[in-house]
Amino acid sequence: MSCAVLVVEDDDDSREMLCTVLEQAGYTAISANDGLQAFRRMDERRPDLILLDIQMPVMDGWEFRTLQRRDHRYSNIPVIALTAVFDPLDVALKLGIRCLPKPLDLDEVLKEVAGACGA
Prior knowledge:
Distance between the termini: 12 Å
Strand order of the largest sheet: 2-1-3-4-5
Helix content: 40-55%
Largest sheet: 5 strands, parallel
Oligomer: single chain
Number of strands: 5
Radius of gyration: 13 Å
Strand content: 15-25%
Number of domains: 1
Shape: globular
Number of helices: 5
CATH class: Alpha Beta
CATH architecture: 3-Layer(aba) Sandwich
Structural class: alpha/beta
Order of helices and strands: EHEHEHEHEH
């Protein structure tokens, strides 16, 4: 079974590009354009990993991560944050997760996904 990666990103082009790269690498990509939609997607199919943009409308990455940690159904799903605005180290420390800076290095993203998916 393929590792399912939920890509939570409000920028359509970035989200589509990440999903395409993941699928070409053999992963199943699930997309959501904000944190609220991400919860709906997780109800449909539980991902093995979440790639989470921090700055988004409706429900941002900070709020999503807070709610995800409180929800026993999803609290153990690993998350990798993605940000262009905030200091990645600060995000990683505050949210307790890995954080990659934007613009993304796609090789680094694939390396992180492979590690999180046990590949």
